[in-house]
């Protein structure tokens, strides 16, 4: 019978893991007790910095099955060949709360999806909402500061939140979504997901298309009222995590129908809505949903920290056939997300099993940094080529070749470099349209939720916000005004 010995991290057998090395039975401990030092030092480092946003989340593996070939639009491998299956990983999350926060908070939900494709990892890092509060990433740090804790009191700050929104009317559409019944999903299975941003496809002919991703829950959509959420937060702060774990363990695998909206590149120049504005949706009457596949989640991670905490989703993880767009929020996130992972985990975070390519090999000239030399268990070496060559081009026999056939077609850019104000855009019509499709009960709950929160802000902030609500819809503004008792 084989005995599994307890060892230290370097593999040395440990004869006593229960008692520290001391100078006599009652004496002080000795610095030479390297096993004690190792245990305490590792314990001190067991937590990496939590994500500034999306700190608490749930991760699940699954598969994407393509039901409609998209080769007319993109050369992306996972979108070519009807019936093709691609391994996936999805991380759901709340946005503003810390690691210990409750799952049932009123908050957008992160919906981050990774495809482990044969040409690299493709990440779509979106939310459960098709829009966002901002259209320019330069405002993002300020916005998140208003969602976090007051630097003096360390308490959540309704004054800061509403003050910021009152001075940024572009947030009106997303504020209406957040404060409506859609603001508290009952769990992660029963909510839709969206890529939110505008991305690009390009095909073998070099034609470019603009695209938006939609993930429609086959479980239906279920939301919580304020009262239900308050009760659930007290009963089970981990309600969404527990719900997902139970579903997977019971083989009740959740599914989403995957859809895209596709816009020919030239349409962007004349369309009446800026198609790269994250505060707007593309009306389905103009660009209908095209069903392309099914996302199924069916396997739990084996180690939450190693896989869910250290998964490094980033919208900059793009593959041939899928690209970015002039969406200013997306442009900022292309840098910010990957940089956040370098800060949290280290320069070689993509060598961790959950992050490295599962269906191909990563070949590059990067060598140094934390965790250098770590090998991906799915594809072997993460460097490729001659291990001594950390530069390119080089003349070694195993020199890496640039596959020019995957080059993205040129994107024409026009205009003068400037810091353009976007406040001349229509920030109210889509918010008003959304309000008008709500039922009377939904409108009443929306007004009560906003009034209850906005009443905690100063009078000047309340008045500025009221002006925005009235511009979106007269009845919308009147209900909030009445709710505030003004």
Automatic annotation (TrEMBL):
Q: Name one GO molecular function term.
A: metal ion binding
Polar residues compositional bias, start-end: 376-397
Annotated PROSITE patterns: CATALASE_1 (PS00437), CATALASE_2 (PS00438), CATALASE_3 (PS51402)
Q: Report the superkingdom from the record.
A: Bacteria
Q: Does the keyword Protein transport apply?
A: no
So where does heme get bound? 337
Q: Where in the cell is it found?
A: Cytoplasm
Q: What is its EC number?
A: 1.11.1.6
Q: Where is this region: Disordered?
A: 1-21, 362-397
Q: Where does it primarily localize?
A: cytoplasm
Reactions catalysed: 2 H2O2 = O2 + 2 H2O
Tagged with keyword RNA-binding: no
**SUPFAM superfamilies per the record?**
Heme-dependent catalase-like
Q: Which GO terms describe its biological process?
A: hydrogen peroxide catabolic process; response to hydrogen peroxide
Q: What class of enzyme is it?
A: oxidoreductase
Catalytic center residues: 54, 127
Q: Which residues cross the membrane?
A: none
Cofactor(s) annotated in UniProt:
heme
A cellular component term (GO) from this record?
cytoplasm
What Gene3D superfamilies does UniProt report for this protein, alphabetically? Catalase core domain
Q: Which family does it belong to?
A: Belongs to the catalase family.
Know the name of this protein? Catalase
Per the UniProt record, the source organism is: Shewanella loihica (strain ATCC BAA-1088 / PV-4)
């Amino acid at each position: 019978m084989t005995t599994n010995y307890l060892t230290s991290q370097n593999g040395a057998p440990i004869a006593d893991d229960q008692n520290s090395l001391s100078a006599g039975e009652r004496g002080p401990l000795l610095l030479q007790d390297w096993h004690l030092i190792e245990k305490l030092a590792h314990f001190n480092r067991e937590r990496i910095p939590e994500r500034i946003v999306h700190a608490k989340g749930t991760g699940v593996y699954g598969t994407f099955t393509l039901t409609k070939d998209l080769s007319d639009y993109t050369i992306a491998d996972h979108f070519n060949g009807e019936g093709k299956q691609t391994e996936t990983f999805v991380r759901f999350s709340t946005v503003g709360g810390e690691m210990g926060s409750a799952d049932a908070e009123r908050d957008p939900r992160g919906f981050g999806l990774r495809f482990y494709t044969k040409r690299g990892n493709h990440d779509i890092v979106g939310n459960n909402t098709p829009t966002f509060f901002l259209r320019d990433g330069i405002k993002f740090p300020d916005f998140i500061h208003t969602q976090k804790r007051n630097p003096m009191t360390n308490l959540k700050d309704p004054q800061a939140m509403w003050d910021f929104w009152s001075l940024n009317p572009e947030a009106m559409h997303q504020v209406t979504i957040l404060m409506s019944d859609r603001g508290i999903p009952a769990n992660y299975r029963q909510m839709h997901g969206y890529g939110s941003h505008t991305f690009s496809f390009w095909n073998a002919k070099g034609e470019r298309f603009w695209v938006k991703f939609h993930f429609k829950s086959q479980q239906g959509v279920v939301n919580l009222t304020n009262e239900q959420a308050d009760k659930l937060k007290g009963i089970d702060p981990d309600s969404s995590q527990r719900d997902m774990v139970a579903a997977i363990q019971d083989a009740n695998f959740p599914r989403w129908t995957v859809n895209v909206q596709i816009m020919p590149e030239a349409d962007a120049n004349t369309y009446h809505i800026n198609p790269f504005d994250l505060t707007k949706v593309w009306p389905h009457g103009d660009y209908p949903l095209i069903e392309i596949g099914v996302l199924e989640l069916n396997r739990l991670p084996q180690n939450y920290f190693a896989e869910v905490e250290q998964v490094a989703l980033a919208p900059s993880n793009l593959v041939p056939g899928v690209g970015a767009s002039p969406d200013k929020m997306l442009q900022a996130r292309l840098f910010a997300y990957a940089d956040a992972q370098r800060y949290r985990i280290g320069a070689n975070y993509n060598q961790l099993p959950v992050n490295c390519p599962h269906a191909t090999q990563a070949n590059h000239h990067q060598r140094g940094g934390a965790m250098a030399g770590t090998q991906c268990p799915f594809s072997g070496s993460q460097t490729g080529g001659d291990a001594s060559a950390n530069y390119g081009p080089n003349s070694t026999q195993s020199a890496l070749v640039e596959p020019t056939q995957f080059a993205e077609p040129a994107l024409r850019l026009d205009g003068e470099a400037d810091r353009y104000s976007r406040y001349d855009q229509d920030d109210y019509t889509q918010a008003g349209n959304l309000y008008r499709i709500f039922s009377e009960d939904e409108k009443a709950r929306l007004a009560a939720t906003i009034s209850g929160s906005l009443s905690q802000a100063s009078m000047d902030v309340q008045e500025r916000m009221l002006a925005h609500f009235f511009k979106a819809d007269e009845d919308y503004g009147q209900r909030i005004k009445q709710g505030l008792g003004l």
